Fold these 2 entries.
Entry 1:
Amino acid sequence: MDGYALHSRDLERAQSEGLPIAQRIPAGSTGSELQPGTAARIFTGAPMPNGADTVVMQEFCRLEGERVILEQTVATGANIRPRGNDIKRGSTVLEAGTLLQAAHLGLAASVGLGEVAVYRRPGVAIFSTGDELVEPGQPLAPGQIYNSNRYQLSALLEAQGCEVIDLGSIADDFDTTRRTLLAAAERADLVVTTGGVSVGEEDHIKTALQAVGELNLWRIRMKPGKPLAFGRIGAVPFIGLPGNPVSTYVTFLLFARPFIQHLQGRTQTTPASWPVQAGFDYQSKQRREYVRVHLNHGPDGAPVAETYPRQGSDVLSSVVWADGLVEIPEATRISSGDTVRFLPFSEWAR
Ligand code: AMP
Ligand code: MG
């Protein structure tokens, strides 16, 4: 605090007759021992001189020649930050497994850490599957659609702190799929694909994976995103995300992201969620559903979730429109006004 440092024994005297200003201590310098019956001119960021225990702010004072007169009552010990006020010597500043965000970096710097040990960014090899896919910027022939998953998946992985090894897109062909899986696993800590993981005979991911590694899990009772696959190619984990773009997005956030966070050594991997009020009626069937919602504010200011009118797994604009997902348990009837679990997209992109 910009003001005057003194000893609390002299507070009364500072009010009645004032104290002589014996020294000046700007930030960055150290004063000398404060003699009883004197005050030190002091500035924010300067260390307290020995012999002082209180700082009175300059707005409470008036100067008379070389004396400072205190015009208000001030409590002993006021306006001082004791050493170790934030961090005690020997205490843990940051736990291993913590994502280093702005405040964490500031805190590490504040205790003088010039270097911290961190996990290497995981290298994640990705490729999309589908004979119908064309890259944006190219003309579209009949029967073709633009590859959207490649771009959203890259961005999701980058936001997650991964190095993306982008292998582009491949044809719906068993041998190509098998070879691309092997090439991907050679270069990456994790392989993530989109599409080709459903039940049709043009879906080659599962059989190709079984040929070069193992399939440990396939299909989740959820909507969107049922045909999710998980396995290994040698020691490299594999996640096969479904091809429909909304399914890709939702299963990435619910499954791939926590898995990647685990690879990154992070201890907190559960997606953030909190209760909100449903502003809609809904009846789920046998699968757990994740509906895209936008949060409005109800009459009392509390958030109310409204669903996007079209919830198809092809409707990627629903994800752009939405603030997040509402989880609807299996075979459950939701009525407007019920409390539901909201998973915000904003919290997930970290
Ligand atoms: P699949 O799982 O390969 O049967 O794909 C399911 C649906 O998602 C199909 O309609 C595909 O055309 C579509 N799809 C698959 N991959 C992509 C992609 N990379 N970008 C856009 N749509 C895709
Ligand atoms: Mg396909």
Entry 2:
Amino acid sequence: ATGMAAGKVILLGEHGVVYGRHALALPIPDVVNVTITRASELSHDLPGEFVDLLLNELGVEDKGWQISIDSELPFGKGLGSSAAIAVAIARAFDNALQLGLDDERVNAIAFASEKLAHGTPSGVDNTLATFAKPMLFRNAGGLQFESLDFDTPPPLIIAWGQETGRTSEQVAGVRKRREQSAAHFDCLFDEMDRLSRQGAELLQAANWEELGALMNICHGLLNAIGVSTPDLERMVALARHCGAVGAKITGAGGGGSIVALCPGNSSAVDTELRRAGYQTLVLAGKQVS
Ligand code: PMV
């Protein structure tokens, strides 16, 4: 049996979303596929605790399964790979064993696995992986989202280099720095919230210039809370230099990916980032290349 899930790219609001603010995120559709087949014993290339937790949540007692992952997402680059794997595994077992899981239950199972991976996740990754819709997301004691409809998808390029950011470490670092300057950090998170909500309107109006400006501001705020690196700054500067109207860290930072909004110049930005040695993923609506 197989199961599929989406990755995600956060356009605005990462980190603030851990503190109850909104984030604006888009799915990277159908990029993670899981196949499970009968085997003499449990076999997979994933962390043992992660699979044990999922099987436990799913109520699967017979462990004779081989779990194989086929993913177009890089791992550890802020694109929601671990949540997508959890969702795809849940769906594969649902298909194999007719567990009758609805999307809410799949989302809750993947959220539990995210808690294991990084302590205090907002739930944005598992929610995007499950529902695969553009959304304004928030965790205000419970997972809430408003899905967004629009006809023109934003012309986005995602790029990453060698550095891998560990989400748990980045979130812990932000928490520590916030403890020293709570009032300042809370202002920055409030501003991220405003950017996300305004960004959702601009996204629906296909107003790329203004949306790009908000992404640039958000990048500055992410730098202010201490999650940028010289290599992320280099990627952002390169994308802007080639004509991106907005470019920022996406995901937890400390390494990982940037996202650039590139109306009319996607291929120039893509070519330059690749020439500089980065890997890219071009995202426009349902197509990924
Ligand atoms: O897991 P990542 O690196 O794709 O990013 C998650 C976004 C954060 O806001 C940094 C953490 C969270 O749980 O929302």
